[in-house]
Design goal:
Blueprint: H1 3-24, E1 26-31, E2 36-37, E3 42-49, E4 66-80, E5 83-96, E6 100-104, E7 108-109, E8 112-113, E9 117-122, E10 135-141, E11 145-147, E12 151-160, E13 164-169, E14 177-192, E15 195-208, E16 212-216, E17 220-226, E18 239-245, E19 249-254, E20 266-267, E21 270-276, E22 283-284, E23 289-298, E24 316-320, E25 324-330, E26 333-346, E27 350-354, E28 357-363, E29 368-374, E30 377-382, H2 412-419, H3 424-454, H4 466-480, H5 484-498, H6 506-513, H7 516-530, H8 540-552
Parallel strand pairs: 2-9, 11-19, 20-28, 22-30
Antiparallel strand pairs: 1-3, 3-5, 4-5, 6-9, 7-8, 10-12, 12-15, 13-17, 14-15, 16-19, 17-18, 21-23, 23-26, 24-26, 25-26, 27-30, 28-29
Helix pairs in contact: 4-5, 7-8
Length: 570
Amino acid sequence: MSKMPKLIVYLGLFILTSMAHAQSIEVSASVDKNPVMVDESFILSVIANGEVDKGAFDSSFLMKDFVVGRTSISSQTKMINFDTTRTTTWSTVLIPKNQGRFTIPAFNIDGSMTRQLEVLVVPATASSASSARDLFITTNVDVKEAYLQQQIRYTVKLHLGKDLQRGSLSGPTLENADIRQIGKDKEYNEVVDGRRYRIIERSFAIIAQQSGSFTIEGPLFEGEVIDNSRQSFGFFNRSKAVNRVGPSQSITVLPIPSNYDQHWLPSEFVQLDDEWQGNTSEFVAGEPITRTITLTAIGVVEEQLPEITSRYPNSVKTYPDQAETTTVEKDDTLIAQRKESIAIIPSQAGQLIIPEVRIPWFNTITQKTEFAVLAEKILQILPAITQPTSAIPTSPVIQTPPEIKPQTAMPNDLNNQNINMPQYWIWLTASLLVLWLLTLVFWYKHVMSLKAKTKKPAYSPAKNTQNEQLLWKNLEKALNKNASLETQKYLALWLGNFVQDKQAPLAQSLKVINSQSLNQEVNTFLASRYAKNQSSWESTALHQILCEIRKDGSINQHSKHELSPLYPIS
């Protein structure tokens, strides 16, 4: 029975202590300056005396009328004559969005309410002329009215009247827009209202993705400047935190015109260019021609550029490469480019007509539809280069020795004359006969050597010279790396060396070698490089076939370029 009164007493003491604790919490709210200028920051301080939760302060409902900066929390505990006092302070940076009179509502901190505060926001021009402003921001747009996805150039200038110790400047904000900084910051000095300012200028490109009327919220600057009015200690200068926000800008984004039915590309200037690789004065049937078309547009980003539609006659095969797009900055303007390369292989000689290319775009200056045009091209295609045949040396005419007729009976007087001939005429005749026989022997050997040479085919594989070994080494290196561009280069050079015609194109060398397996692998390789639906390519099979051809060192005997023997066997 004695425990029950004690429990009631303890419970009563706990309730009284809780009530005293609740009654001991005192909260208050204040601002460090009032009135304030429209782009000037001020600090809202909320102080609570007593045990409170640090997350009890919520500043989200202030975002309607103010730019809410970071909130810092500090706690302090004091004990005087065993009386403990705890204080929690929330300090929030606020920047007005507009001029006028605004009410900061009461805050509920653990059941205790602060009083309401009224803040007067005056225009920046209403400040005292005697005390020029130390820091402020100005903003500007190049156009107040723009079409959908048209670039708007937005410029921010930060004016510094005091030395800046540190600081950061955010970008402007606009919903449903692509915002990016263009160019580098510019820094210079300028006199404004009789005071010299250090100015930091920054430019942004804003591309709205939705039509209508919008407000571009100005950027926020947070930093510290050196405060010469406050006492410094030794070599250390005192700094003062400053926060400024740039004025907002109102813009109107116009929709796409109702009568425009092309790909939407709003710009001030659009241009089409093309470039032909190699010798543009001589195009040969069967040899690839690489054409690169470049689309350039000012004031847009690469995602806005359309595909380049180019048409070609049925007499050519086309193998387009993957398109390359990029966006660069020049003179505070975005410049977007799209490059498309295509390999063209004409199949027949004669005149080749490449139709014109047209890209529609909307001129934001004249507000009219225009076209970027590549004019029609007329190319002269030469026939495929055939391998020149070797000159066949003509055999020397074999002079038959004079026919020796059987001697008839001589008269007696002639026989007597022969008997009486001088001795030296006999030796001279014998010498001439020996020389004539030697001449016949050497001539016979010469004719036989010529016949042996003419029996060889016109295209004999090249020996492993130093030049061939270097080309083969480079070709193997490209094959091992699966490098398609280097493989195509060194394959043509090595095959031309193999058939002993360094100027022969790839198609001609393949025709001379006349290997079905080699032709199949080369076609697979070229299709992987130039086909519209490109696929991965493995060089193993092609490498193996080339090694076998090089090791064997022979060319198909059925090649039509083989010469018939000089003396065919009948």
